[in-house]
Amino acid sequence: MRAVFLVSGSGSNLQAVLDAVAEGQLPQLEVAAVGADKHDTGGVARAAEAGYETFVVNFKDFDDRAEWNHELVQKCLSYNPDFVVSSGFMRIVNEEFINTFERRYINTHPALLPAFPGAHGVRDAMKYGVKVTGCTVHYADAGVDTGPIIAQQAVAILDDDTEETLHERIKIEERKLLIKVLKDLSESRAAAS
């Protein structure tokens, strides 16, 4: 199973996947490339250092969002991926991208969707006062953090949690869950071939 990973930041989720590949936990997964929406991201640096092909489709290099989206679609397609994985990719893609990679664009989110979608899932969960939150891996669609859920993992909110401590504990579970989902998807594709 070939996958392109998209990042916007440090790439800690991506690093967990790269480590799992290196350790033989994901023998059916091929990291085709790692791309970013801006230059100098930690995720692209991590991937390049590990010997993976990387690319940047810089959002600021385009006059409008549609042009940027189209170029991102073309760049991802050039690697012939079975899946595209948003691994901390902080850009909303348009309908062209969603339609091109329908049920093949995977996203992670630090909340138990459909609760607390958007950029502040951890903060929103704490503010609402829930006792349990978690993380979700889902197929992204045209909505914000909507689309069919693939897997979820609950994380209890502790009395002394801050947004930062809770988010760190969620990230640990999010990495494990993403690796499990990628393992399941790649094994089921291999079995079907």
TrEMBL record:
Entry keyword annotation includes Transferase: yes
Binding-site positions, (6R)-10-formyltetrahydrofolate: 65, 90-93, 107
E.C. numbers: 2.1.2.2
Pathway where this protein functions: Purine metabolism; IMP biosynthesis via de novo pathway; N(2)-formyl-N(1)-(5-phospho-D-ribosyl)glycinamide from N(1)-(5-phospho-D-ribosyl)glycinamide (10-formyl THF route): step 1/1
GO cellular component labels: cytosol
Binding site for N(1)-(5-phospho-beta-D-ribosyl)glycinamide: 11-13
GO biological process: 'de novo' IMP biosynthetic process
Record PANTHER family: PHOSPHORIBOSYLGLYCINAMIDE FORMYLTRANSFERASE
HAMAP family tied to this protein: PurN
Descriptive protein name: Phosphoribosylglycinamide formyltransferase
Gene that encodes it: purN
